[in-house]
Amino acid sequence: MTDKAVRETRLPDREAPKRGKVRDVYDLGDYLVIVATDRLSAFDWVNPVGIPDKGKILTALSLFWFDQTRNLARNHLVSASLDDLPDDFQSNPDQFEGRSMLVHKCRMLPVEFVVRGYLAGSAWKEYCQTGSVCGIKLPSGLVESSRLETPIFTPATKAVNGHDLNITFKEAAGLVDQDLLETAANAARDVYLRARAIAESKGIILCDTKFEFGLLGDTVILADEILTPDSSRFWPADQYRPGGAPPSYDKQFVRDWLETTGWDKNSPPPPLPDDVVAKTREKYIEAYRKLTGKRDY
Ligand SMILES: Nc1ncnc2c1ncn2[C@@H]1O[C@H](COP(=O)(O)OP(=O)(O)OP(=O)(O)O)[C@@H](O)[C@H]1O
Ligand SMILES: [Mg+2]
């Protein structure tokens, strides 16, 4: 293991950041610093043990995709260089280097822009029950993990308990102005298609992904992280078989191990043992190397 995991960041002279399950977000007024920590969540619980470098690898991957898709959708990135952050961040490279993005603070649209090019997860369940997903009728006879030649936009919203709730386009249009919704949904589809093609050429299937959009003035901006294993389902192409659920790229070891422990998933999870941490870290690195062709992790 090269580094210790960075599970939480803090700066003595600043208010504590807003902590999501994985990211620490510092508010600088017109800008945010979004810091991807090494926290890992599985079955909706953050594990007490982090995966060293996970936040750096996911930040590098997000930056790769922002670059690959910059002409398809304007995004929120200002800089990922530590030199462009305030001094107190710069004096703490152990916490912030390589895992921080300075972004324009946007007014976020209250809809998750999920695009699916394969039938998996909640979409597969919904299709089995109704033949539709989020109000979109699909051809009959599809099986689990079937490829959808034309990807579908399946909006979701965060329910009160924090879980995502699939909604129809019409319901989404009740939450977001219809023109903005269409602009963002089209951008989401374009970005997904570009990424799916790039991933495919590297032996990785991009099953589905979630984007978040915001408004900067009245411009629709692609925000948050994009196309990381935390916001997407990636499958190794050589393990893809329609009719079953391929292993998720990164967290399969974690999920499998947690299933063996007898943990009830309603209380804090048991800490991951070293070998599961090491294997999971290797998977993140493998995905990063395959997708980007880079070897810096
Ligand atoms: N450019 C932006 N402007 C404003 N808010 C943003 C921007 N980009 C991302 N965000 C928000 O920053 C937060 C990122 O934190 P994170 O995803 O870790 O936490 P979360 O979404 O609140 O919780 P969860 O752990 O369930 O994902 C999200 O609330 C996201 O909507
Ligand atoms: Mg989030």
Brief description of this entry?
This protein is of the alpha+beta class and 297 residues long. It has eight helices and 17 strands. The longest helix has 24 residues, at 178-201.
Beta-strand segment tally:
17
Which percent range fits the helix content? 25-40%
Rg: 19 Å
Cα distance spanning the termini: 12 Å
Mean pLDDT: 95
Catalogue the unreliable spans.
none
Bound molecules: adenosine-5'-triphosphate, magnesium ion
Oligomer: single chain
Structural class by sheet pairing and helices = alpha+beta
Order of helical and strand elements: EEEEEHEHHEEEHEEEEEHHEEEHH
Shape annotation: globular
* Annotation field: number of helices: 8
Q: How much of the polypeptide forms β-strand, as a percent range?
A: 15-25%
Main beta-sheet annotation: 6 strands, antiparallel
Protein architecture, described:
- The chain is an alpha+beta fold.
- The protein is built from eight helices and 17 strands.
- It has helices at residues 54-68, 87-90, 93-96, 121-130, 169-173, 178-201, 252-260, 274-292, and strands at 18-19, 23-27, 31-36, 41-42, 45-46, 77-79, 100-104, 107-108, 113-118, 132-133, 136-137, 147-153, 156-158, 164-166, 204-216, 219-223, 232-236.
- The strands form five sheets. Strands 8, 9, 12, 15, 16 and 17 form a six-stranded antiparallel beta sheet that branches. A five-stranded antiparallel beta sheet has the order 1-2-3-7-6.
- Strand 10 (132-133) and strand 11 form a beta hairpin.
- The model has no long low-confidence stretch (mean pLDDT 95).
- Adenosine-5'-triphosphate (ATP) binds at residues 20-23, 25, 32, 76, 103-106, 108, 212, 214, 223-224.
